[in-house]
Amino acid sequence: MTGELSPIDKAKFVAAKKATDFVEDGMRVGLGTGSTAAWLVRCLGEMVREDGLRIKGVPTSTRTAELAREVGIEVISLDAAKWLDVTIDGADEFDGELNLIKGGGGALLQEKIVATASDQMVVIADIGKEVETLGAFPLPVEVVPFGWQTSQALIEETLVGMDVLGRSSTLRMNGDAPFITDEGNHILDLHLGRIGNPRQLAMVLNQIPGVVENGLFIDICDAVVIGYGDGRVEVRDINAGTVEEATLDFVETDNLFTDLAD
Ligand code: 5RP
Which positions are catalytic residues (predicted)? Predict the structure, then answer.
């Protein structure tokens, strides 16, 4: 890899690096999906290769599974692991109660299953992901392909009774074709603007026929590691009520970038 990382990538990197403090030898670790989670996988891979860290990783997508194997992490299925010590993943938005919007990368279903099967879920994010109220980022909802337009109509109808600003939704595309998740489903992105009651919305959406899961993660996240472009990190633990601040040295080692093209 050549050239400098952008401030946003540095922020993602330092958040991911700091979050490796949550990982101990022998742990079963849920590995998130997305650009921030990819940094975590690279950092953990380096610790496996260089420091002899022994972990078993449960990936939340085929993308993450490929990267984890590439950097030297032993990959096992969630069924083989049964329960995880910690899951570390990115987020599209997080609020003051550490409720999240996830699924920007289309992996929300596996991400929610894996996070919920963990003693602890830690979110890694740059400071731009923090919001007062969830909803500016379109809320991803995974729906089965059969009758997806009916599900979409039911969702939009249901939103009439909800505390949201907007009610439109769009089918996520991958070029000219609908985006297909790892489970073979579609994603509807709900343009809500503001979600007044995320807990209620998360429950109501999952009652609609055809909806598999939604991207609201309520009471699942235990801690967030926030990265800044200048190397500062902040660790907020919602259970302990603590905030820790630190600054990480940023060193671009070739080892970390084995999967990245020049
Ligand atoms: C994937 C996700 C990601 O964690 C989320 O989209 C954040 O991605 P990034 O770290 O690339 O900003 O939920 O489904």
Answer: 111 (proton acceptor)
Of 85, 82, 58, which is closest to residue 69 (Cα–Cα)?
58
Pocket test for ligand 1, best of 36, 39, 114 (most atoms within 8 A of CB): 36
Q: Separation of 205 CA from ligand 1 center, angstroms?
A: 21
The backbone region for 72, taken as left when phi is positive above 0, alpha when psi lies in -120 to 50, beta otherwise, is: left
SS3 140: strand
For residue 257, pLDDT over 80 is answered with: no
* Least-confidence region, from 115-124, 223-232, 246-255: 246-255
Q: Residue ranges of the domains in the chain?
A: 2-130+219-247, 139-213
Active site members: 111
Classify domain 139-213 by CATH number: 3.30.70.260
Q: pTM of the prediction?
A: 0.95
Pocket of ligand 1 contains residue 227 by CB under 6 Å: no
CA distance readout (Å), 26 to 21, 22, 54:
14, 12, 5
CATH 3.30.70.920 applies to domain 2-130+219-247: no
Q: What span, in angstroms and rounded, lies between the C-alpha atoms of 214 and 87?
A: 19
- Ligand 1 site, residue 102, Cβ cutoff 6 A: yes
Consecutive H or E run containing 4: none
Residue 103 pLDDT > 80? yes
Cβ–ligand 1 distance for 111 under 6 Å, the answer yes
Ligand 1 atom nearest to 107, measured from its CA = 14
Residues 115 and 30 sit within 8 Å (Cβ to Cβ): yes
Find residue 174's DSSP bridge partners. Answer: 177
